[in-house]
Amino acid sequence: MNLEFRVTKKFVNELLDVLDELVKETRREEKEKYPYAEWKRRENSLRKD
Fold first, then answer.
1. What is the pTM of this model?
2. Does any domain span residue 21?
């Protein structure tokens, strides 16, 4: 398999766009997995009791 190609400004910009989208998706998934605000609210209610 020959993977020779030229790295152009256009290619780099497209790659950066893809990476930005992946970061956004990952952050959304992390927020869904770990509801920090809810955890913090419960922690505070336990400390008050």
1. 0.50
2. yes
